[in-house]
Amino acid sequence: MSLVLAQQWHDKALIVTDTLASTLEGDSYRPRGFSTKIHTLPHMNMVFAFRGVSRLAALWEHELTEVSKCQDIEDAHEVAASRLKHRVDGVRSHRGTTYRPAN
Q: Which comes out higher in pLDDT, residue 51 or 54?
């Protein structure tokens, strides 16, 4: 379980998360360590926070910046439905393997 709290104002946002990172082993999540759950994409004027399997956040950031070459949040919105599902399915099918971004 993850904690994500967010508040947005006209000129700023505050996002707070816990730092426990987990991995999916079999049908259950296992604590793996600690890492940030907040990812910043300054060139897109965007930030996102993730809950769940920590590898998925890295894959999603890779998708947005390297594969789909998103330039702004509208681009991210365009690819989110199909590509995020693709990334989730990829994590589920490679349980327990080392992180390797898929194009």
A: 51
